[in-house]
Amino acid sequence: MGSFIKSLGYYVPKNVVKNEDLIKHMDTTDEWIQERTGIQERRYATRHEESTVSLAANASRMAIERAGIEASEIDFIIFATLSPDYFFPGCGVLLQRELGITGTECGALDVRNQCSGFIYALSVAHQFASGGVYKNILVVGAEVHSMGLDYTTRGRNVSVIFGDGAGAAIVQPTDQKDTGILATCMHSDGTHAEALAFINPGCHGGRYGDVEKYGYDESLDFGGTFLTQKMIDDSLIYPEMNGQFVFKNAVQKMPESIMEVLNKTGYKPSDLKMLIPHQANLRIASFVQHKLQLRDDQVYNNIQKYGNTTAASIPIALTEAHDLGLFSSGDLVCLTAFGSGFTWGAVLMRWV
Known about the structure:
By secondary structure, the protein is an alpha/beta fold. It is built from 13 helices and 13 strands. Helix 3 (52-67) packs across helix 4 (91-98) and helix 10 (243-265) packs parallel to helix 11 (282-291). The longest helix has 23 residues, at 243-265. The model has no long low-confidence stretch (mean pLDDT 94).
């Protein structure tokens, strides 16, 4: 038995934020942003009205409706995000409540693999569905970055990149051979975890040798403030990224993961109808495309209008490409991502 994506859905907030809007708050230009990222605009959630879970619910409702099922028929939820509504509980149970899936034995699992989150979530769903454990698995990638970024010149390398959005898929089992999800791969290497990271100051407590950097009170055996004044003064309460180092690794690992799933199934890059790369940076996507010698019509990118929505980027782009008719039943479709951790992977599908 295998599995396939029965339906897709996505949602992006209505609030469009152009590069020109950001340059009012930091020393940068539209040309600088586009040259380095390819991004022209992104969407931001509405404060006090939208959250990661509400975006996910909208995307999920679309996928559920397109699958021709009721929300009550969902028997497992896998939620990928790096921007949860709460530290705990996870977004999976909050989405379950939002969709009205109550009084059931539906399971919920949160996946914390950042930009690779949807690849990991879809791979886990494939195993559950293929094993006959669940029949209707809701796989979601959703993010709200906009409410936790540094909109000063100091934070521009990170803040200009990210946007908000959500994508969803319904994964079901199938008995058909050579159809649906054909192969997956998941990899990680924590050697350079801090190259792209957002610390949780209340938990690691200076264990990683950064007591002075973050201003922890060394006289305390336990307790103390969650945030220190030094963290606030030095903007250490925001994500940090070594962009060049991340780029160098991404353009190596993404093509490798694509070739891994192709080699597992006996296909080659030219057999692909569509490649959906994680929308991290248009330069990264272009590098991957050229390394695999793919034509422009074999790769779909939408980072220009949505920015990097991390775990949401692949399902959003996949849904858009499908709705545009860029691939159809019988076509070979590949998804790939690289992100914080480092984590990376790929999924190869024969579209149903």
